[in-house]
Amino acid sequence: MSQVSKVLSIAAGEVGYRAERAPGERPSGHQKYSPEVPGLEWSQYQPWCATWVSWVAMKAGVVDLFPRTASVWTAMQWFKNKGRWSAYPAVGAQVIYGTSGSTHTGLCVGFDSTWIYTVEGNTSLTNDANGNGVMRRQRRRRDDYVHGYGLPAYSEGIVTADPALKGKPGYTYATQASGPTGSTGDSSGADKYKIKKGQTLAGVAALLGVSLAALLAVNPQIKDPDVIRPDQEINVPKQTEKPKPPPEKPTPKPEPEPSKPPSGSSTYIVQKGDTLGAIAHRHGISLAQLLAWNPKHQADPNLVVVGQVVSVKGPAAPTSTPRPTLRPVTPKRIAPVVEQPSKHGKHCECCGQLDGIKKELGDIKKELKEIKEVVKPKPTPPPTPDQKPEPPAKPKPPMETKPPAPVQPEQSKPTDIPVVPQQIIPTPEVHLAP
């Protein structure tokens, strides 16, 4: 088994493992990997994504190809110092996340022009800082979150999308590739396949039902997958069975798993370990079509949660609703309004009362007019020539006012009370005894 196949096989075998967290423990919890990696026992209860990669490398027997560290940033610097760093994905590479290259890490198992496919420790579908599980992830290849890739120096070489490494020893350039999902055989004792004219290595891999990376792993003599010749014999992995030609009209069979939708269902409930790419493949549709039917996942196709309902069929064509038949409405004829002649006359009882009131008002107005004439002041008639005008009254002389008498100061008057002269009474001397 090739080194990259062993690394990815051990990583895939850990999918589904979850760390435990007792009450009061740190969010990372405790897991089995830290105590088993010599020198990293102290990392228990710490974020363990980098520790998990070191554990996988130890179990695969390639400890010299990966850094032994619990630090993501240290792992990135380790590959850079060895000149094994690239901005392009590679099968079996250690992918580094975060704008500064110190947030998260995992192992790349495949890539295409849009996505990278990984197995990661201490992760979750909600991208928690401490996801506490080993999972398969699908992420956008050109996302800013993807910082770069460390390329281990596998003995059989590594398949990479880096065009600068095309043709260099130890590197095989490919625009898309996927790693083996399990163990694959090596070249010794492997089945053989003869290349035919017009075939490509990627087409042969698809025909044989294996990944391009698995085919290259058992054919280390192929340095460039784009250069093969007719009648060239290549090795085929032992465990791979040649696929049978599909029937012309495949009959869909009911799926035994309860997680798969029944026939005719237009929705699917996400199960543990599902990805949108896997759901699309399972239902025979493209990922682009699945995203078109599920607009809420277009912003981040990597984010799917167990229990979510995903549409796997497009909306049904709208059926035409029969329009109701409209019956003509006959307008109702409205009879014209004819003004009836008044029935009142001079012999009407109410009209007689009105005439009496009018008469009383006239009498009241007449009396008021007579009262005004009586109370109206009569004008003074002008004097006749025989009458003489009265002389104007003479003004009275002003009254004389006398000045007030001056106030004289009050003089004291003698009284008749006699004055008694004061008598002096002698006081006797008092002698004290010695």
Provide the descriptors you would attach to this structure in a database record.
434 residues; alpha+beta; 7-stranded antiparallel β-sheet; two-stranded parallel sheet; elongated
Strand content: 5-15%
Q: Which of globular, elongated, flat, extended, rod-shaped describes the shape?
A: elongated
| Major β-sheet annotation | 7 strands, antiparallel
Distance between the termini: 151 Å
Global mean pLDDT: 77
Radius of gyration: 59 Å
Secondary-structure element pattern, one letter each = HHHHEEEEEEEEEEHHEEHHEH
Structural class: alpha+beta
Number of strands: 13
- Total DSSP helices: 9
- Low-pLDDT runs of 5+ residues are 181-189, 240-244, 256-263
Oligomerization state: single chain
Instruction: Tell me the helix content.
Output: 10-25%
Characterise the protein shown here.
This protein has 434 residues and is of the alpha+beta class. Helices cover 21% and strands 13% of the residues. The chain is built from 9 helices and 13 strands. It has helices spanning 3-13, 33-36, 49-59, 72-81, 201-208, 212-217, 276-282, 287-293, 349-375; strands at residues 85-86, 94-97, 104-111, 115-123, 133-140, 146-150, 158-160, 171-173, 177-178, 191-194, 233-236, 267-269, 309-311. The strands form 4 sheets. Strands 1, 2, 3, 4, 5, 6 and 9 form a 7-stranded antiparallel β-sheet that branches. It has a two-stranded parallel sheet with strand order 7-8. The longest helix has 27 residues, at 349-375. It is elongated, with a radius of gyration of 59 Å. The model is unreliable at 181-189, 240-244 and 256-263 (pLDDT under 50).
